[in-house]
Amino acid sequence: MSLKQRKLELLRKKREYIKYNKLEFYDPYPFQIEFHNDKEDRRALRAGNQIGKTISGCAQDAFDLTGKYPDWYEGIRYNRPVTLVCGGINNDKTRDLLQKALLGDPVEKETSLGTGWIPKNCLDPKKLSLKRGVTDAYIHAKVKHFTNGIHDGWSTLTFASYESGKMAWMGDTIDIYHLDEEPPMDILGQAGRGCIASGGQIRLTWTPENGITEVVSKVESEWSMHTAEWKDAAGEEFDYEIDNEVIQFKPVKTLKGRTGHITRRTLEQSAKDFPSYQIKMRMKGIPVLGSGLVFEYPEEYITCQPLEGGIPNSWPRIAAIDFGGISKSAHPSAVIYAAWDQDTDTVYVYDGFRLHSADYADVAARMNSRPAWIPVIWPHDGNKEVPGGSTVAKEYQAYGVNMFHTHFTNPPDENKGEGTGGIRIEPGITSMQNRFKDRRIKIYSTFPEWFEEYRQYHLKDGKPVDYKDDLMAATRMACQSLRHAVTEQDVFQYDDEWEDEPRNANSVTGY
């Protein structure tokens, strides 16, 4: 064999070695290293699209299944074979993304087995089980595990999908669950139960395309959270403006010195491919939508500092409540207070609060600490009966809250009587949209809870999602009830004139 032939043969062997030992050449970004080295048993990586979140999860799967941990690794280690269940939204996605990432291309499995993150020498084609009814998809794979370089048994890898239901995720003792993209709550719960006996771990890698759902809220409040956006994988220096925010990109280096893969061209192309409201979610991994944000206006349009000298006495005021429950899973009670500058037709939301798991007395006590002369608008479910024959609204009234004399309705059409406007949400949303657009609504910067809801208030299938929208609902009712707003002077004049009349004599103010 000639020298040239020997060199070509060595080059061929080198390429083949790299092809079938991908894990050995893993070159993570700093954010990926932090995720891997986290020793918490519940950890999540929330990231933008195409930044490497699934790679992070699958590389970690390969570490644990094989026991082949890199020198820089400081995270949780297993010195024995493990049982690992991983999956995604449906069977096809699980096959095309996770199975391909871990084992190799499912279509060309004869030649590609071992080209994924699990090395070829850790796999045995005879120890792979196909999934029924899903072409080229595996359900189980046995993986050689090594401790300190010594083969000590076979790990078990199982592929599942959310569409298969929670039964597919059940197991007696599961060491690790890898959830790629957001799971339904029952799947997350099943993963938690599967880890009880093993004391195992769950990791989630996802882009928050469904907004801040119940699952996302639980993960972000209770788990060890990691986040990554496109600038964490930037390949060049440039500035990019989105929603009046200038984001600075600077080159990021991987562990081995490779420059990041996100460029200005990447961003510009994405801006063409996605609606404007999706760019932040896809670029920064910010949870913003179901089918789109309800309100897409920058916060600086609507934020204001508390007015110097306070709210003028001549501005009418109104309050609104969205009723909550007392169970831990119930919506919180939410109340907002608004003032109306009639000269400019601008609404100022200047005060409010949310109370979780609070009974009527607790909420009423908070409300009674505000001026008692401000009428409180309430939704139609305030007419719901409670034990003892009273109603929710009357219970608040009994605690001294100045409840309006009837439930909320939208403004009536011209030439139609009060109360004929109905209770539909859409007119209020449209009215608020117009106020945001014209900057005729201002929210005090001292009301952070309001902005939390504003950022995540989103649509799904064309309808506002009824989740963490309580302050938004109260604001909508207040804006649609300005015809009932009053000044303190109005109330006192009314009391002097009608001191012997019933409190609900006036159908407009309720006084």
Give the overall form: elongated
CATH architecture of the largest domain: 3-Layer(aba) Sandwich
Task: Just give the CATH class of the largest domain.
Answer: Alpha Beta
Enumerate the strands of the largest sheet in spatial order, edge to edge or round the barrel.
3-4-5-2-6-7-1-8
Largest pleated sheet = 8 strands, mixed
CATH topology of the largest domain: Rossmann fold
Portion in strands: 15-25%
How would you summarize this macromolecular structure in one to three sentences?
The chain has 511 residues and is an alpha/beta fold.
Please give a structural write-up:
The structure is a single chain. This protein is of the alpha/beta class and 511 residues long. The protein has three domains: 21-228, 3-Layer(aba) Sandwich (Rossmann fold); 229-289, no CATH class; 299-497, Nucleotidyltransferase, domain 5, CATH 3.30.420.280. Helices cover 31% and strands 21% of the residues. The protein contains 16 helices and 19 strands. The chain has helices at residues 3-20, 30-37, 53-66, 91-103, 109-112, 185-194, 214-222, 264-273, 276-284, 299-302, 360-367, 392-398, 426-438, 448-456, 470-479, 488-497, and strands spanning 42-47, 83-88, 123-130, 138-147, 150-161, 176-180, 201-206, 224-228, 238-242, 245-249, 292-293, 303-304, 317-322, 333-341, 346-355, 376-377, 441-444, 458-460, 463-464. The strands form four sheets. Strands 3-4-5-2-6-7-1-8 form an eight-stranded mixed sheet, sandwiched between helices. The protein has a six-stranded mixed sheet with strand order 12-17-15-14-13-16. A hairpin with a 7-residue loop joins β3 (123-130) and β4 (138-147). α3 crosses α4. The longest helix is centred in the first third of the chain and has 18 residues, at 3-20. The protein starts with a helix and ends in a 14-residue tail after the last helix. Residues 497-511 have low confidence and may be disordered.
